[in-house]
Design goal:
two-stranded antiparallel sheet; 226 residues; Helix Hairpins; elongated; mainly alpha; 434 Repressor (Amino-terminal Domain); 4 strands
Length: 226
């Protein structure tokens, strides 16, 4: 679960040298004291650690000679993320409000389908931050009782709430590859814990889960299994 310098600055290893300064400045602004991104995602100590990583990354990558040397070491140690995008199992076929037939719809048209003309969510359905989904008491009960969260359960909640992984990626600004790694418990492909905790909090919020319980549970699991 090693975070390389390119990932810290959120750039490709092939990024032109002249674009690194802009990436560095964006990262500094994102993790600067008082930034909205830090208010709910990181503690003061974690934010300080991230800022130090940003400075360290630019100190190396911003120097062409040091960058060349670093790239050589990176290639040998193979610290690039290895998780491949997994197929998204979010159902594309769901029951319409009428129970006598099934229709195939996209996540966007599904939301439109179940919303009544008045714009209200019909009985038996609920609206999340990104979608409308059919309520299932047994699943709702399972979610309310869950205390130990792993990737598989987060995927189950996402699919239950009819949230496509691409939509989740767009909303949280977390790459699809990281989301797939998160849902697969592929710890080696995930970023450093200081970044990962923020990712888990963001995902939990979008899924309508208690971010404190989810993040504490998931990070504890990593410590146990790493």
């Amino acid at each position: 679960m090693m975070q390389n310098y390119y990932q810290v600055l959120e750039v490709s290893p092939n990024v032109p040298q002249h674009e690194l300064l802009a990436a560095y400045q964006r990262a500094k602004e994102t993790y600067s004291p008082g930034s909205p991104a830090l208010y709910t995602m990181f503690t003061e100590e974690e934010a300080r650690e991230i800022r130090n990583l940003v400075e360290e990354a630019f100190l190396v990558l911003g120097n062409p000679a040091k960058r060349k040397e670093y790239d050589g070491k990176l290639t040998k140690k193979n610290h690039q993320p290895t998780s491949k995008d997994l197929p998204d199992f979010t159902p594309t076929s769901t029951k319409s409000i009428r129970q006598d037939r099934t229709v195939s719809v996209s996540p966007q048209s599904y939301d439109e389908l179940v919303m009544s003309a008045s714009g209200k969510v019909p009985e038996g359905f609920a609206k999340s931050r990104l979608s409308v989904y059919e309520l299932k008491p047994e699943v709702e009960h399972e979610i309310s009782q869950q205390k130990d969260f792993n990737g598989a359960f987060l995927r189950k909640v996402r699919q239950y709430k009819n949230i496509n992984i691409d939509l989740l990626s767009k909303e949280t600004r977390i790459s699809r590859s990281y989301l797939n790694a998160l849902e697969s418990d592929d710890f080696e492909a995930l970023p450093a814990p200081v970044f990962l905790r923020g990712f888990v909090i963001q995902v939990a919020k979008v899924l309508g889960l208690n971010e404190n319980i989810v993040s504490s549970s998931y990070m504890s699991r990593i410590k146990r299994e790493s």
